[in-house]
Amino acid sequence: MKLRLRISHPSAWLGMLFLLALGCISAAPAAEIQPAFKVTGSMGTARYFHTATLLTNGQVLTVGGYNFYSPGYYLSSAELYDPVTGVYIVTGDLGAARYAHTATLLADGRVLIAGGYNKSGYLASAELYDPAAGTFTTTGPMIKSRYLHAATLLVDGRVLITGGYSASSGYLASAELFDPSTGTFMPAASMINARQKHTATALSDGRVLITGGSVGTTFISPSEIYDPVTTAFSPAGMLVTARAQHTATLLTNGKVLIAGGTCSTTCLAAGVTGELYDPAAGIFTATGPLVAMRYVHTATLLPDGQVVLSGGKSPQTMNYLSSVEVFDPAMGIFSSAGAMAVARSNHTSTLLQDGKVLIAGGSDSSSNYLSSSELFGTFGPDLTISGLTIAPLVPVAGQPVTVTATVSNNGDLAAGAFQVALYQNLGVAPAVTQ
User: Fold this and answer.
1) Superfamily of domain 193-337
2) How many CA atoms lie within 13 A of 432 on its CB side?
3) What are the C-alpha distances in Å from 26 to residues 14, 82, 405?
4) DSSP-based three-state secondary structure for 316
5) Which residues touch 357 (CB under 8 Å, ≥6 apart)?
6) How many alpha carbons lie under 13 Å from residue 391 in its C-beta half-sphere?
7) Residue 217, exposed/middle/buried by CB under 10 A (0-12, 13-18, 19+)?
8) How many Cβ atoms sit within 10 Å of the Cβ of residue 227?
9) What confidence score (pLDDT) does residue 409 get?
């Protein structure tokens, strides 16, 4: 918006000085902007235990999940979040409703949806989402039905599926590999330990680190590594604290941050602690502690190398959390980073291409399934003024003065939601508004 204002008034000087001061403030070097939260568009369907995947075009694909108040409970719907508009739009439906599944972005831009659970039971079925067509097509199926498993993209473009739970086989040690070129799953070597609710993190050298998980009420400390070259799993050290429903994040220095989780109904150590895995040494060391104990939370690597943890539940009180904290690898500490607008667990958090984090869905303490979303990141001022000029530079009382400035809307303010006012005197009604 560019303004050209003509003012004829003996007291025009005060107005000029006020607007000039405002322009100088806008042009001055900005102070460091702290991360904050901003509410963005809501999903069309409330859901938890869904997946959210950043596509190569910058949009976020949200798939499936569970909603007790939705017909059929288990969701087949999918939506796309557009960061440019801040709006979700409906895309094609899954062939089979599912929750507690996995979603993996493939090298060709498609997304592999695998396993999960619905009213028919534990699923072996898999589907591929094509962003160009906006549709899902059947692929696979997996060799084993499974849910609460993990899926990891390998350097060669295949996807490693590990563990989980199946009605026919119970807790699974089995693993399989999906080949996008053939659309088939093939058996892989089995893990050393059966596990569900674990993590599987691709390391910088192409191997995959498997940590934690549980078998019934037993929480697992031994970790293992899958090597795609040898096609075998091998021991990878012991967690300091056995845990499940934690997060594992590859840091820019090649180490892996293990954060939070649960270790039993009476164990609180997992929820409040963090650990660092060093692939070179093959050991875990304690770090932290967390600001708030949490599990079923999310962890997202930020562009600056820090990791943001959001929401979840307290394993001590079972309260749902709105709190957020950030881990600084350089300092080895967690620090508070504010709070979300809504407490939520079993939600998703996705790093967008602009460096912000999209936090979406989940459930809250009132057993509500959430459609709301919010953004975490740094936000500049909504309005800035630039290019301010005054002609003539030395006004003459009673003669017209032209003021030109550009007011930029950098935020989410809708047109007509603001006005620019030029005051002749501070505290006096504006002479001109635009």
Assistant:
1) Kelch-type beta propeller (2.120.10.80)
2) 17
3) 19, 29, 12
4) coil
5) 300, 302, 308, 310, 349, 350, 351, 375, 376, 377
6) 7
7) exposed
8) 14
9) 63
Q: Nearest Cα to 320, choosing from 297, 299, 304, 336?
A: 297
The phi and psi torsions of 308 (rounded to 5 degrees) equal: -100, 130
Single-letter amino acid code for the residue at 256: V
In the sheet that holds 111-114, the strands lie side by side as 102-105, 111-114, 126-130, 135-139
User: Reduced to 3 states, what is the DSSP secondary structure of residue 414?
Assistant: coil
- The model's pLDDT over 251-305, given as tens digits with 9 standing for 90+, comes to 999 999 999 999 976 677 888 999 999 999 999 999 999 999 999 999 999 999 9
Grade residue 13 by pLDDT with cuts at 50, 70 and 90.
very low
Predicted confidence band of residue 20 (pLDDT cuts 50, 70, 90): very low
CB 213 within 8 A of CB 197: yes
| β-bridge mates for residue 374, sequence order | 39, 359
pLDDT digits (tens, 9 = 90+) for 303-350: 999 999 999 999 989 999 999 999 999 999 999 999 999 999 999 999
C-alpha 296/C-alpha 302 separation (Å) is 19
C-alpha span between 414 and 404 (Å, rounded): 23
Length of the chain measured in residues = 434
At 31, the amino acid letter reads A
The amino acid at residue 268 is: L
In 3D, which of 242, 259, 255 has the Cα closest to residue 298? 259
Q: Which of 106, 131, 94, 129 is nearest to 181 (CA)?
A: 106
The residue written with tokens 């009213």 in the block is: 119
Instruction: For residue 240, give the nearest of 213, 273, 268 by alpha carbon.
Output: 273
Structural contact between residues 40 and 82, judged by C-beta atoms closer than 8 angstroms: no
Burial label, 319 (beta-carbon count in 10 A; 0-12, 13-18, 19+): middle
Closest by CA position to 377, among listed 310, 318, 427, 423: 310
Both tokens assigned to 269: 């150590």
- Which tokens sit at 160? 């490693």
Per-residue pLDDT of 105-114, as tens digits, reads 999 999 999 9
Q: What is the pLDDT of residue 16?
A: 41
Q: Is 163 in contact with 172 (CB distance < 8 Å)?
A: yes
Task: Report d(CA 391, CA 333) in Å as an integer.
Answer: 55
CB-CB contact of 421 with 403 (8 Å): no
Contact present, 105 and 54 (Cβ < 8 Å): yes
**What value does the CA radius of gyration of the chain take, rounded to a whole number of Å?**
26
